[in-house]
Amino acid sequence: MSDIADRVKKIVVEHLGVEEDKVTENASFIDDLGADSLDTVELVMAFEEEFGIEIPDDAAETIQTFGDAVKFITEAS
Amino acid sequence: MFDLTGKCALITGASGGIGGAIAKALHGAGATVALSGTRVEPLEALAAELGDRTHVLPCNLSDPAAVDALPKQALEAMGAVDILVNNAGITRDQIFMRMSDDEWQSVIDVNLTATMRLCRGVMRPMMKARWGRIVNISSIVGATGNPGQVNYAASKAGMVGLTKSIAYEVASRGITANAVAPGFIATAMTDKLNDDQKAAINTKIPAARMGTPEEIAAAVLYLASPEAGYVTGTTLHVNGGMAML
């Protein structure tokens, strides 16, 4: 697994308080990992800070799963 | 009780009577304060009076870009925005039949839309800090209505709905949002009334007098304090019993 994926996973695990093995490629933050809409905003904020990137609101809305997040951040950074 | 040492507060309308009193109360409790308003001179005078831990951030609240920039400026100046007090407000009274679109819109823009923009602007730092206090200064007329103030009353009632909805959304993050609804308060705004008008008003107030800016500031200080952490989405009416809501 890439370095980016590891760092994203760490943020997700810490923020949502879920087991690491639950954070799979297709795991949806809201449907599978118990996030509410505010959590998803906070995850995006945490990603922005960790990777020094800016994630616009319309892009943030497309980040639904762990895989989406890794893909977006890999492309953006 | 009510120690705000280390907290940073942004207060709009700080050049006015109530806003100035709020700034003094929060500053007196140890907070660093950013004083905003349209008139620079009274803001500078207040800052000079308060001394350390003060910043002056002039802002025209009818300019959306300037309003959006204000939380960022406050963040840069103070390093944090823990407390936001939306106190600035304008009136453009007119009987409803004659009320122009402009009279309506300008009051909604400054009182309601600017409040929304400033709340939105401080959300991110407050969410990160897992702590925040939003205090929106509404008005008794937002609850009771008032002839000649369709625009003002609508804006002040709107602030209450906005406050409650924000309170719902962010309560789990340690952020509270509350409103304070002053009744008649002795300020430059009420100084314009003549003695007969003042006497007529006092007969409608069980306390038989107008309130003071300091009495509003005390309510704001409470809602801004760590002690009020379990109070959210409420409207604290400070009106001498004029409307018991």
From TrEMBL, chain A:
In-chain residues carrying the UniProt-annotated modification O-(pantetheine 4'-phosphoryl)serine: S37
Gene3D superfamilies, A to Z: ACP-like
A GO biological process held by the record: Kdo2-lipid A biosynthetic process
Primary site of residence: cytoplasm
One of the record's GO molecular function terms: acyl binding
Any Gene Ontology CC annotation: membrane
Keywords, sorted A to Z: Cytoplasm, Fatty acid biosynthesis, Fatty acid metabolism, Lipid biosynthesis, Lipid metabolism, Phosphopantetheine, Phosphoprotein
Pathway(s) this gene product operates in, as recorded in its UniProt entry: Lipid metabolism; fatty acid biosynthesis; Glycolipid biosynthesis; KDO(2)-lipid A biosynthesis
Secretion signal, residue range per the UniProt entry: none
Boundaries of every Carrier domain copy: 2-77
Location of the protein in the cell: Cytoplasm
PTM characteristics: 4'-phosphopantetheine is transferred from CoA to a specific serine of apo-ACP by acpS. 4'-phosphopantetheine is transferred from CoA to a specific serine of apo-ACP by AcpS. This modification is essential for activity because fatty acids are bound in thioester linkage to the sulfhydryl of the prosthetic group.
Role, per record: Carrier of the growing fatty acid chain in fatty acid biosynthesis.
Family indicated by similarity: Belongs to the acyl carrier protein (ACP) family.
Protein name from the UniProt record: Acyl carrier protein
Organism name: Thalassobius vesicularis
TrEMBL record, chain B:
Domain Ketoreductase span(s) in chain numbering: 7-188
Catalytic residues in the record: Y152
Molecular function (Gene Ontology), one example: NAD binding
One family name in Pfam for this protein: adh_short_C2
Chain residues that bind NADP(+): T38, N87, Y152, A153, A154, S155, K156, I185
Keywords: Fatty acid biosynthesis, Fatty acid metabolism, Lipid biosynthesis, Lipid metabolism, NADP, Oxidoreductase
One GO term of the biological process aspect: fatty acid biosynthetic process
Family in the record: Belongs to the short-chain dehydrogenases/reductases (SDR) family.
NCBIfam families: 3oxo_ACP_reduc (TIGR01830), PRK07231.1 (NF005559), PRK12826.1-2 (NF009466)
Protein name stated in the entry: 3-oxoacyl-[acyl-carrier-protein] reductase
